[in-house]
Structure formats: structure tokens, C-alpha cells
């Protein structure tokens, strides 16, 4: 049998499981028909037979047997005497089928065929990968960490395809080790040097949207719609939701009983605070909800300038602004307005302050509670008192108080 085993001869063939067999067979057929055209000038009277299961390839030449001296087309006809040399029982008018030895093409032609086939298979795999992930942009996938670099992480999906999670698309608190499975959303598919690069993200609002869809059946079923999500990854997020069913409380459904639904998402996002609010077309009501957890006293809205002055009680100002100004920044993104905060009893811009609870990741909760017990519920209220005064009024040790002051002072120096 003049055949060639493709699985052994062309190593890329066995790596092409994600390419459908008919496409694969067509590629192999095209490659060898090109060889036939180069050698014989035409492939009209040749059949390339590919056995996709075994990886076998046969090339069969078809010619009609004619009387000696009547051969007009050597590619389509063969003289009777020449046919009898192949098989004595042949008669004039019969079809002669003859297998072509692959080695007859020559070593150089076979090598070129291998290279062409490998290149075609590589292109097919790229196209399949681009289509697969191009159709999944915005979907969550799980992949295994294969290599951790300074600027990005290389992951492998279940089929061994390489995926990239750039540092810029990671939550600041993210820390992953090789072999760990992580979840992320498919952000985009790029082509670099003619190769597809699949970029994942854990900071995209769509990642939070998909996590909510997984945890909240009402969102998956379309009973609750996510109108807008704004995020400061790892710090805070605000999710505006709306229900098309008056019997469903969209905020309650998203949060779950005792926070059961939202807690899993918060853990996935490295303790990112998530404010879920009811969407409304009433812009003043939306502003109030967007500045959660602060409570607004009054506001002055200028629709033309897309600007609003918000007035709050002094103890609510730091809540409205939030640590590093994150809360007010997200409220502005959610409402598409510029928001200025004022004390309602002075009408002057509030001196920047930070609620002490915003330091819960650096200062232990029991220490914060002890400071709040004496009325120190913001960063500036702690800094306004001396170490000795704080030591006298609380049960905290001097070294602990000094550490707390350093932490809160450093936050203002950053600003």
C-alpha cells in the first residue's frame, strides 16, 4: 500500500482535535492536490483519499485504457500495452486505477507538503481559537495559572489554550500561585504577530455583572436588570438594578437573606464593598442612592451644567466622600454628574476627611470600635487628639495609638 500515516508524519495533526474532521480532510486534500498539479500539471484525474480516523492517505490515479497509438491525453489515458504491464487482465475501454507512491514526489516536495500542512493547520487552530473566544467576550471562564510574571499571568484553559491576565486587569489584592484555578471574564481577543491573544479581566464591570448573574437567578431569568455598574476594583462597587416585576425587590434579591448571595461575590472580589441600589429615572433620588451609605440633607441640581451641590450633616460628609474619595467618584460615574459636597450648616466645601471604618483592612475592628466609643469616628478626629489624650480616654496601648495615627496620617499625605 502506497500510503502515508499522517498522525506520525505530521505531528500537528494530533494537536488539532478542536478542528472538525471535514475541514481537516479538505486541508490535507488541498495540500496534496497542489503537489499533483506541480508534478503532473493537473489534478483532474487524481483522487486524494483521506481516512480521518486512522490518519491514512492514498492518492489514486484514474486513466482510461485505449488502443496503442491512440493516446491523446497522457493524464487521462493509457495505452493498452502499458496497462497490461500493470495487470494482464485489463481490456481496452476499462478504467485503470493506480496508486501513486508518495515517495515518487521526491524528498523536497514531501518536505514542502509537510511545512504547508503544518502552516495550514496552525492557521486553522488560530481561527478556531479566535472564533471560540470572540463569541465568549463578556463571559466568565475558569482557567489554571501556568506562569506568573511581573506584568501578567499566563493561564491555560481546559484545552490547553493560552490566556493572558494582565496586571492592569487584576484586582490590587489578587495573589495567585501556579496551579491555582481562577475565574475571570473574557475581555477581548487581539492579534499579535498574526497570533491570537486572549485577554482576561477581573476588574471589568462585566466580571461583577456575570458573578451577579450566576448568584442571582432573577437576573439570569431577566426578571431583574442590571442598569449600570461602576467599580474601583478591590475597593468599592455600585450596582444599580431594576425589576420588571413589582413583586420582586431587586436589591433584596441581589443581596440575599442575610447577605447570602452577595457574600460569595465580595470574597471573589477580595472584600470589595458592593452597594446595590434601586435604579430610578428620578435624578435627585438616584443621586441620594448613589451616595450610599451617606444620607443627604438637601441638594442643588444644575441640569444644564450636569452639576449638583449636595449638603449633608457633618458626620455624613466623610461617608459621602469615602476613603481616597472612592465613594463620591463612583457616585459621579453612576449619575454622570459632577458632585460637590458641603456641610449643610455652613455651605462651605467640607475639609477632606475619611470615615474610620474605611481603614478596616489596616486597623483591627476592635481598635476602631474602641476609638468610636470615645467619639473618634473619622481620621481627622483621631489626629486632632494627642497620643496621651487617646491613651487616657481609651484602653489602647501607646504603641497601638501611635501605629493608628501613622496609618491615618499616611492616607492624607497620599492625597
Automatic annotation (TrEMBL):
The keyword Acyltransferase does not apply. HAMAP family: NusA_B. PANTHER family: TRANSCRIPTION TERMINATION FACTOR NUSA (PTHR22648), TRANSCRIPTION TERMINATION_ANTITERMINATION PROTEIN NUSA (PTHR22648:SF0). The gene is nusA. Belongs to the NusA family. Keywords: Cytoplasm, Elongation factor, Protein biosynthesis, RNA-binding, Transcription, Transcription antitermination, Transcription regulation, Transcription termination. GO terms for biological process: DNA-templated transcription termination; transcription antitermination. It is found in: Cytoplasm. InterPro entries: KH_dom-like_a/b (IPR015946), KH_NusA_2nd (IPR058582), KH_sf_prok-type (IPR009019), NA-bd_OB-fold (IPR012340), NusA_N_sf (IPR036555), TF_NusA (IPR010213), TF_NusA_bacterial (IPR030842), TF_NusA_KH_1st (IPR025249). This is Transcription termination/antitermination protein NusA. Pfam families: KH_NusA_1st, KH_NusA_2nd, NusA_N.
